[in-house]
Target: YARHG domain-containing protein
Amino acid sequence: MVDDTNQWKSNYINLTNIKIDKTGKFSSDQHTGQFVHYKTENGALYKSLKIDNPWSSWIEDSKFEIGTKSELILKESYSGKHIEASYKKLQPAELHAMHPDDLQIMRNEIYARYGYIFIKNGKMDLYFRNQDWYKPEHKNVNNFLSDLERYNIGLIRSIE
Model:
């Protein structure tokens, strides 16, 4: 299999025991780095996070990775038919008005956004494989779910 190196890969890491000192250096059990100001080629200055031991496997030893903060527009950050299930607290009344098939898709779409691998040739596998944004990568995505998504999954499940 040839890997498409021009495509971003999702790699979720839950950092633990994070500490940030007064000089902007941070450390966790997994990574270290420093908050810095990064100057682009055209002279623009960005606040950034320089990761000393990056999680990107393609970066060579002794090199580093820089991430910058950008404005996040939630509605543009999620894919799928029911994106609201990942960024707002759902209300029982709105869910009761939905068809059971839509509820099932809404609930499973939360998992699919994180690349959950559904049962091969099952209803959800067939549905999500037809979505251009879906990338099956993980057998378990529970550690990626936010508290809000966990709440919404439980609420949807109770109404299904």
Observations:
- The chain is about 25% helix and 15% strand.
- The longest strand covers residues 32-39.
